[in-house]
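re the bet — no i am not wrong, look at it urself. input seq straight from the record:
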Amino acid sequence: MLDLKIINGQVIDGTGAPACQADVGVRDGKIVLGSGEDAREILDAGGKYVCPGFVDAHSHGDGILGTVYGRMCKACQGITTEVAGQCGESMAPVVPGHLEDLKAVVAGDVVDYPEEMEGFTDYRTYFDWVSCQPLSANIRLLTGHSSLRAGVMGYQDRRPEKPEMEQMKMLLREAMEQGSLGLSSGLIYAPGCYADREELTELCRVVAEYGGIYTSHMRNESDDVVNGVKEALTIGREAGVPVFISHHKICGVPNWGKSVETLKLVEEARQAGQQVTLDQYPYLASMTNMSAVVPPDHFGEGAAALARRLGERGKGDRLWRKIAGEIENRQDFENQYRNCGGWEHILISSLPETKEYEGMTVAEAARRMGRDGTEAYLELFVRNKGRGNFIYFSMCEEDLCRIFQNPNVCVGTDGLCRGMEEKGHPRAWSSFPHAIAYFQKEKKLLTLEEMIHKITLLPAQRTFLEGRGAIRDGWAADLVILDYNHLEDRADYFHSNVPAGGIDCVLVNGQMVYQDGRLTGKTPGRLLRRGYREDKKC
């Protein structure tokens, strides 16, 4: 007997094939097709689509694992598997004596550091902890380059010496042997930004030994975005690893249209036999930490240390004046102030110590403070100890749509919900419903079947998720019932933590985790370790 049978639904199987009416059975967490058996439970999906669960190819959910809000923001948009540890940031490995350096690397993603974190000295220990968290979605994890570098070198802006390079390689090799998916880099953030191409290539050669992947938040997504893509592709080619370009975008008005060239580079690499994938969140604004307008060479001791130095010396100090001038004029780094065209286009999402300014642009906050924009920004930076997230409006619709239509592009939230009371980016709650509603339902850029393929089987294949991403007999019963006619994207930049309408039910490993707008309380999600036949469950 089946545990569950979903009847009367239109099945979109994730392969891109046309939808067809069929019943989908579930037994012991696996899909059963073509069976006439009875079931303990019947779920009528009449008038709705039955799809594979959505795969979040770029998640930062590892910093909030097991929390109710962390589970809700994924489940409510149909996500059944997430790939995390992105942008160079992972919770492990912890090198003795460098715990605080690692905490600084992941500070933007973590609400409460686990009590056990000091013991995450290798991925075996870390994965044991992960597998014991209450998970509504499955998770696959990368190893962060910045985390490796912070553990071995702290925040030093220099090339690693040979023993340091060997230690990073050893730590990465251990992580790969214990089930990491690969290496991620965040090349606009300290300390990852201090690495050169040769360092990253040498580390990726370790990843290649284990059949992993290299994901990169590139060194530049604006003025030098073309060279950023070239660098990522060169690292992958020289190391022999598949490349995943993170949240591909074109920032800054003078650069709009450069997606024609970046996508051409991707296609040329693919034609030459290189596996290249890109993820994208479907919005015209990005979100990252508030320090993204300050040149990275000022973060040799971390953002908190810089804020302390600025606060001790005051706004008349040379360092204060130097940074203020560089924010407004310097062009040799990924300057989000210049990309956005000024403080009027930078929205304050969250500030832990000065919440009264959340929801304002920096320009609006400056007027309230009686300061000019840059002076107000630096004062907020000091008062919040360098912590906080801003939303940066710097992209155009033409690039957004052109990138999405590339067949090697899938969807990633790049999103983080740090609590129901904290404002964030709508991508954390609504990237997948918004992508369907905007690109497919409104703009008709592709068929619904093609859309579902982009958010299910495509990312599953590119991240080596065996037996997931499609509705096939014997595959994991990760399923979404989509009410397409009532699909409604409700989250926005001012009310970010709002579930979309139209995601009726979500099943993970055969168990219902989300139904009727609520979590069910079931937590069947699993840690999916690369290279392991059996998923580990605590």
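see?? DSSP finds 17 helices and 23 strands in the chain. told u. also The longest strand covers residues 79-84. so pay up
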